[in-house]
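2 proteins. here.
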Amino acid sequence: MSMDVLELIDKNFSLTPSRWKQTNELLESDCGVKRVRYWSDEALMNWHHAWRNQAEHDQVLVDRMHHTVEGRWFVPLEDGFLTLHDVYFDSFPKQNHEHIWGRFIGEMLAFGVEHPHYQGVHESTTLNILDNLEDSNRMDTNLTMIRKSLPEAKRRLNMVQEIFEQYRHLPKPILESSLSVNQGKRVHGYLFWQGGNHYPEAGLQGVGSLLADWHQSTDTRSVHALLDHIDDRFTLTGGYDQLIVAELIAPREVQKCMGRMENAGPEQSKQILDRFEQEWETNLRLVEEVYAWINRRAKKVIR
């Protein structure tokens, strides 16, 4: 298949592929490294094409689909479609660039609310964490730290349910289910966003995960600045800010720890539990910081 794909790309695009950097995924060419994506679901491909075109602006580039020599943005295959995308590897800075990141995230949120009609969208998995917590009752009784955290984790999940219920009238943005700061690359001074190819999800889980990433490598000022600039493009205050808090309150630390422990040996278990404790405390600090931002914005409105 690998050689057939290279020949197909050589025939359909205005570039010359040389060899695979990562078989059937990344290729080297006379125009730099390119990512090859395969799509079996045409509607999903169309959705990814649409949001990529919408989110790009004067300070942000997106890994949009390359056009073929015939002017199409995909190549038909027997069992689906192929698209070609730019790839870059240098990370885009976060601190002092919050205005660029924030506007881009706001653009994605706006698109997700304004274009909600996609039949393959998945519902948020946030409330399903409860299932994993119930499964954890069968865990090794020696994992005292996790077991002691379960009552608080369930209390947090109940809070999430209450927030979801309170703001159920708000249209849920349709976004990629997983967003990470690692997707933001730098090219010629621009933020270059490398999107995925997964089914979109209704809700703010992706924004919550990106905010958690951001918090790990910056500070409170930077978190607040990022939220300010998202809010400038897509109004968070009035409900969406609370829905982001709900995603952060959700006890994903327990869920992640459970997954890591499944195949861990004795030596790894201690490291995983230490990481769990650290993530638990870090996430609580992030929730406090977001609440502080919400309160600050509320005071500005009152004035």
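next one coming up
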Amino acid sequence: MGWLSNKILRLSVNSQRKEMTIFVDTLRGMDPDEIAIGLAFATNFRNTIDLTLPSNLSLLDPFALVEAYPTITYENANGIKKLQKNGLYHQAAGVMVWQHTLRAALTPELRHLARTMWQELSRAMTSPTMLRAAMTIKLMGIPLTLDVNDYDVFPKGFEPQQTPDTIRF
């Protein structure tokens, strides 16, 4: 790559890092019930998209997915903009979870942020929390039936890192 290509790539990675850092910081400031609403939309998005993919591909294997569909992050970005333009911010946040995950699969410098994001999302990965989120979404008047099956499954390569005090023998 030439110097211009490297400069553009570096600017892009820095912009994505900034977006992910803001997203992770926002999650850190939320309680599990707030996170669960975004996790419900993220899970629904994953389950819906996975139905449209060949059986050997899934958002749960982001490395294989970006290899098979190199433009998927551009398509997601357009989808996020449309959701935000229509005022569907909760749904956009759910897609952003996967956008950040896919970007991290493409860019090693972002992977630690994606793992941190999934660690924060894991605070909402309990049945009671997800049940409350489903009720909250219904009360918000959002006319969707969400598919939140396997809400507690991490994408390959983005499982939160275990620290020595969390490793069980």
